[in-house]
Amino acid sequence: MDFFSYQNHQLSAEQVAISDLVERYGTPLFVYSRATIERHWNAFHNAAKDRKHLVCYAVKANSNLAVLNIMARLGSGFDIVSGGELARVIAAGGDPKKVVFSGVAKTELEIEQALNAEIYCFNVESQPELERISAVATRLKKIAPISLRINPDIDAGTHPYISTGLKENKFGIPIEKASDAYQYASKLPNLNIVGVDCHIGSQLTEISPFVEAIDKLLALIDNLAEQGIVIHHLDVGGGLGVNYDDETPPLPDAYANAIVERLGNRDLTLLFEPGRAIMANAGILVSKVEFIKETETKNFAIVDAAMNDLIRPALYSAWQRIIPVIEKPQVALANYDIVGPVCETGDFLGKDRELAIEAGDYIAVRSSGAYGFTMSSNYNTRCRAAEVMVDGVQAHLVREREQVAQLFAGESLLPE
Ligand code: LLP
């Protein structure tokens, strides 16, 4: 559930009318709802309350400092994939001691940065990475807490670009090599084995692939215990899907309960790395209809947001709901492709949408809080959008709209 709704035909975020925000901040504009973020985060936290656990929000979904700060105030942990994300977490008041560091190729510098910040754990994805972390830790005379990301070879049944737990994917250590990898890690200097980790994909709408993966990991954990390697935490990754259209993904408590059930009486702290499930429906992208263009075969609504602002439709053929900011019962419904100004046919936000809109109106692309702004770019030398956080009756500008001069500030001409 989220806090975007119509009040007197006006789309609102909590108690703030989107049309007011558009007047103040212009478009394209990302608008987030604090109450929605807190509600979603708490859904995970409360679902696992009877077990030792840590919700490590996946920063890549939305890394705005205000978003991270809201999570930090809730006591959240963070799942990061770069030194940049670690810097953001710290700048937002997050606790580095609750950070897990995922990703297939952490650089020496990033490992050093993370060791100095005393993060909770490195999620290690390969043997060479184990060796690199061990070497950096030895040089710095520190002990690196590690977990191995296991690839359980499970079909998550999701889009191939965001499926990560199959043998052919680049992620993690194959389950059949896991035991040897742990033995190897146990012999490397300056490493402390603390966990087992997996992440099988994103936008999963069924519980069964998660449970299948966890059963494999629990069997591994039991097997490691027999070899004298004690695992303290199980990190189940992220991946819980959301409702974009008519999907019916399990709610966080059903998902967490299914996992908790499998743990039995094992003494394991449970880590979750949700990104999308917290943020997707906590944000919208608001855009102005510049022109209506009618052709022989189609009607286009050309809007001022484009694939550089929201690439999911172009990249994954993702479907996100598009609704008017002001409902106009007097305007006739028509079928539109909602397209942006970028010079590519793939530049669309939605196709075949029934909308009652006219030029000059505003539309909102729902479910844009996750993998929206963070995947945006400056393609076509377009400035990235502004971001606003609504909190009850208040709205805070949490990222200024980029200015053109910023875009080429680091560039230079050739010498004469
Ligand atoms: N943990 C790890 C190690 C991950 O790689 C990811 C996402 C997550 C957690 C969070 O997954 P979530 O709960 O958000 O599903 N750009 C794509 C999604 C890419 C997900 C990448 N990894 C999209 O817009 O659909």
UniProtKB/TrEMBL annotation:
Residues 35-280 form the Orn/DAP/Arg decarboxylase 2 N-terminal domain. Its EC number is 4.1.1.20. It is an enzyme of class 4 (lyase). Pyridoxal 5'-phosphate binds at residues 239, 273-276, 371. Its cofactor is pyridoxal 5'-phosphate. The modification N6-(pyridoxal phosphate)lysine is found at residue 60. Pfam families: Orn_Arg_deC_N (PF02784). The active site is at residue 343. GO terms for molecular function: diaminopimelate decarboxylase activity; pyridoxal phosphate binding. It catalyses: meso-2,6-diaminopimelate + H(+) = L-lysine + CO2. CDD domains: PLPDE_III_DapDC. Substrate binds at residues 276, 312, 316, 344, 371. One of its GO terms (biological process) is lysine biosynthetic process via diaminopimelate. Keywords: Amino-acid biosynthesis, Decarboxylase, Lyase, Lysine biosynthesis, Pyridoxal phosphate. PANTHER family: DIAMINOPIMELATE DECARBOXYLASE, GROUP IV DECARBOXYLASE. Belongs to the Orn/Lys/Arg decarboxylase class-II family. LysA subfamily. HAMAP family: LysA (MF_02120). Homodimer. This is Diaminopimelate decarboxylase. It comes from Alginatibacterium sediminis.
